[in-house]
Specification:
By secondary structure, the protein is of the alpha/beta class. Helix content is 36%, strand content 17%. The strands form four sheets. It has an eight-stranded mixed beta sheet, sandwiched between helices. The radius of gyration is 20 Å and the shape is globular. The structure holds the ligand CSC[C@H]1O[C@H](OP(=O)(O)O)[C@H](O)[C@@H]1O. The site of ligand LNRAV4D5 has 16 residues, from helix 2 and strand 10. Pathway: Amino-acid biosynthesis; L-methionine biosynthesis via salvage pathway; L-methionine from S-methyl-5-thio-alpha-D-ribose 1-phosphate: step 1/6.
């Protein structure tokens, strides 16, 4: 068992919309620097922090989804490198452990690379160990700030896009998995747009896919929606089709874990069926992600490694209140015959032609093309403009 200590929050989170701790933070107690993560496997029942004093503990937190969500994984990777350096561990070995903790979200390897490069550049420039550690930590903090700023801009661009795509306010938005402050250094990606619509008085209903098997929607998005005072309704993933058929969905907003150069999007399993439903029912299907999630080195969706997770996440039901519940086979409540085989991809791939728009902090690509994505990635963050440019670009 890795060395993870627990801090219990002042009050239970369930039903208490006020209690909140950051999804991830750096701390420097007298006994040495630590990375502290809010254990998302325990939400919404308890807000419990995991204090990671070394990289194996942080890797375990990533693998168990105690800390999860593409942009936040980037921060975990960057702070993990700083933690290794600050504690005198082998930075190369630590970086390798971190970047391979989960394969699909490109942000993880990006965050590791940013902090590792800062550390190496300092060392090669003659800096002593203390200054090299400081350089890695400064880079992690810079990425944290950038992600928070990106959240703000994605929310602005996304709200402007909804105004262009949908006539009048009173949006009924369906979302999948969890894409709010729990996946980010700021307000999140797709849920950040939902929050902006809510605060602008434009959100009539948030349909929340529960998102089997780990229930990020039921446990986490509902938790964030409740704290925001939103009108939200939970549904099973299989019920989404009947909502579309009833004309109850005005738009689908989802996040992303990796966007390939051709605009294919890897996101939580169940995203692709939503894209097909949205296309069949002529509903806008919008992906919201920072440019750090766009991987121009991966040519297409078939080239994205989709994480295959253990079958017990499907064949057993894990009670989130128990420490470590569901992280090991046999620790949950069986819901299938012993020995049942399970197919458990964590993500699926949605082709660009089924995506109405990709919203980033640098603007909006619609239609989604490789050129439009590359252009967005080449830009610096931009203020919101909703003019549609000739090359299919929307936003600044
Ligand atoms: C916008 S990042 C959130 C993204 O990450 C989730 O995956 P996981 O919970 O396995 O980390 C899901 O794909 C969300 O869309």
């Amino acid at each position: 068992m890795v060395d993870q200590k627990e801090n219990r929050a002042a009050a239970p989170a369930l039903g208490d919309a006020s209690v909140s701790v950051p999804a991830l933070r750096w701390d420097e107690p007298p006994e040495g620097p630590v990375v502290v993560v809010l254990d998302q496997t325990r939400l919404p029942v308890e807000e419990v922090e995991l204090v990671c004093t070394d990289v194996p503990a942080l890797v375990e937190a990533i693998r168990s989804l105690a800390v999860r969500g593409a942009p936040l994984l980037g921060l975990a990777g960057a702070y993990g490198v700083a933690l290794a350096a600050a504690r005198g561990y082998d930075v190369t070995e630590a970086a390798e452990l971190l970047r391979h903790a989960r394969p699909t979200a490109v942000n993880l390897e990006y965050g590791v690379r940013r902090a590792e490069r800062a550390y190496r550049t300092a060392v090669e420039g003659g800096a002593d160990e203390e200054r090299a550690v400081a350089a890695a930590l400064a880079e992690a903090r810079a990425l944290h700030r950038e992600d928070a700023e990106a959240s703000e801009r994605m929310a602005e661009h996304g709200l402007a896009l909804l105004g262009e795509l949908l006539s009048g306010g009173g949006y009924r938005i369906l979302t999948h998995c969890n894409t709010g402050a729990l996946v980010s250094g700021g307000g999140g990606t797709a849920f950040g747009v939902v929050r902006a619509a809510h605060r602008a008085g434009e959100l009539r209903r948030l349909w929340v896919d529960e998102t089997r098997p780990l229930l990020q929607g039921a446990r986490l998005t509902a938790y964030e929606a409740a704290r925001e005072g939103m009108a939200y309704t939970l549904l099973t993933d299989g019920a989404a089709g009947s909502l579309f058929a009833a004309g109850e969905v005005d738009a689908v907003l989802i996040g992303a874990d990796r966007i390939a150069a051709d605009g294919s999007v890897a996101n939580k399993v169940g995203s692709y069926p939503l894209a097909v439903l949205a296309r069949y029912h002529h509903v806008p299907f919008v992906v919201v992600a920072p440019v750090t999630t766009v991987d121009l080195r991966t040519p297409d969706g078939a080239s994205i490694e989709v994480e295959q997770r253990p079958g017990h996440e499907i064949t057993e039901f894990a009670a989130p209140s128990a420490p470590g519940a569901g992280t090991e086979a046999g620790s949950g409540i069986p819901v299938a015959p012993l020995g049942a085989q399970a197919y458990n991809p964590a993500f699926d791939i949605t082709p660009a032609e089924l995506i109405t728009a990709i919203v980033t902090e640098n603007g909006v690509a619609s239609p989604v093309t490789g050129d439009a994505l590359a252009e967005l990635c080449s830009r610096s963050p931009s203020p919101t403009e909703t003019s549609r440019s000739g090359n299919g670009m929307m936003g600044a």
